[in-house]
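JOB MANIFEST
job_type = single_chain_structure
chain_count = 1
residues = 205
[input]
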Amino acid sequence: MATEHKRPLWANVLATILGLYAVGIPFAGIYFQWQYAHEHDFSSSLFPGPAVALGKASIWPYYVARSVAGGEPETWTEAEKESVVHFTRSQQLSVAATREARTTLESGGTLTREDVVRLVAELKAALAEARAVKPEALAKVHPELPGAFQERYVRSLELVLDCIQARDVDGPARREADELLAKWDEWMKAHHKELRIPKDPRLPD
């Protein structure tokens, strides 16, 4: 009578794991192909989209582990990326505009009419960029960012512009604008490491 050989436990566990891995590859491939097409244009989704999806599908357990651990990056649409570009560009414009005016005043100079016209135009451009930002996109960067951005940064820009155009740069509205901008700077410094900025050549790393 032949002796029946039972496989060791580790062999059964390994066979189960390999089976699950093999079953997961086609489903992961479909998901990664959809994700790539969602984030890129049509021609890119034809090539190299399938190759990228296949490569990711072959290591799908890694992405599952990252997702469970909270480390899987967000999926960003082009519209959401564009919103974050507006967010970044607005701050770049406002900083550049106020820096130029501050440099002139701190050196003992005065702002000419042309300087004021240029400052207003630059701040209006910054405000237009800020108003083009979609709150839902900022919420993906940080859940508290939409409120902080609107209530502190955008409101401070609006107040500064109102003060300059009303020629009331030393009144309570200007002081409120300065306080709001200081609170915005504090918020950004406190949370900048938590911001999840999408990868885009138009955005800083």
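[summary]
The chain has a mean pLDDT of 83.
The radius of gyration is 26 Å.
exit_status = 0
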